[in-house]
Design a protein that fits this description.
Shape: elongated
CATH class: Mainly Beta
Strand content: over 45%
Radius of gyration: 18 Å
Strand order of the largest sheet: 2-1-7-8-9-6-3
Number of helices: 1
CATH architecture: Beta Barrel
Length: 122
């Protein structure tokens, strides 16, 4: 691998790799609460934290690779994995939003937001 080669984020939903994914974003939020006094910031109070994964995928002529729309509607929990080199984020959560869109001259796309447990990379 050349020095300039970059990692391509992959996405696995319930253990199945999603092939048509165009974009993947994984954000961790500690939800820490700042502790302030008259003389400034004293520290923080640890929050519960959560992880948000957003992705966009092309829709095939047979339909989306995974039925994100129904998962949002059902409110069901799903395992999500985002490998990052030798480690991965692996967590359990739910699909919060789903959107289907298309721009002129482009393939139809489905995008979603998933929210899950605050967990370290393993």
């Amino acid at each position: 691998m050349a020095f300039g080669d970059g990692l391509r984020l992959r996405l696995l939903v319930d253990g199945v790799q999603q092939i048509t994914t165009n974009t993947v974003s994984c954000k961790i939020d500690g939800q820490n609460v700042p502790l302030e006094a008259l003389d400034g910031l004293l520290g923080k109070s640890p929050g519960n934290g959560n992880v948000e994964i957003s992705a966009t995928a092309s829709i095939l002529s047979t339909g989306p690779e995974y039925d994100y729309w129904s998962a949002v509607e059902a409110g069901s929990y799903h395992d999500m994995q985002v490998p990052m080199g030798p480690k991965s984020y692996i967590g359990n959560g739910w699909f919060d939003t789903c959107e289907v869109s298309q721009s002129t001259g482009k393939a139809a796309e489905i995008s979603f937001t998933w929210r899950g447990e605050f967990a370290p990379l393993r």
